[in-house]
Specification:
This protein has six helices and ten strands, in the order E-E-H-H-H-H-E-E-E-E-E-E-H-H-E-E. By secondary structure, the chain is an alpha+beta fold.
Amino acid sequence: MHDTRILMGMPITVEIVGAHDAKTMDAVFDFFNQVDARFSTYKDSSEINAFNRGEILPANLSAEMKEVLQLSAITRDQSRGYFEIRKADGTLDPSGIVKGWAICNAAKIVSADGYKNFYIEAGGDIQAEGLNADGVAWRVGIRSPFDDQEIIKVIALRGQGMATSGTYVRGQHIYNPHDPDKRIEDILSLSVIGPDILEADRFATAAFAMGARGIYFIENLPGFEGYMVNAQGIATQTTGFGAYVLS
């Protein structure tokens, strides 16, 4: 069973091998709707915006919000401050971690219903479990930051997550917290494979904020691999990335 819906301002695709009814699929999309309602910085009614306006005290935040904010703080420390959700005006924007967190929790919903072979993608970030309908590892593509119709690498995922951070779609939405006024222009995209999509997503955001040095940060993270494309179109990959490459 396969379905794609537009939620959280992006296409979200779920494929569950062996599913014969829409119960699990609907539960996953309902969850993404709840995430959007809680974390969207574009909805005045969201919990994050209410918190930023001072309408909710930290002690009264939902368990989900507290978890995401704690993960953000942990990621900030692990990345030497390159992951930061506090903006210049003092408000919080956890968008750099919410998508991976949401996909990871959506995968738990599918697993809890007994399915072992499935794929969830939201805006290019992916969690793949088991095998696809043909009985082989899930194949996913890394798009060229110069041409979104061109796939520059095809990757096989076997229970991992892959996240891509970049400026070629949404512009300069990622910044270096240590030098916030300087645009990140030396690299265009950085894809990270991790043990799950939450881990891949949070470190992809942090590594991209480091610019060209980010690929070396990923190289030194046990259990992670990365693929970076710079502004000249030159790619750099971590030592073990090739093990995932099909073409």
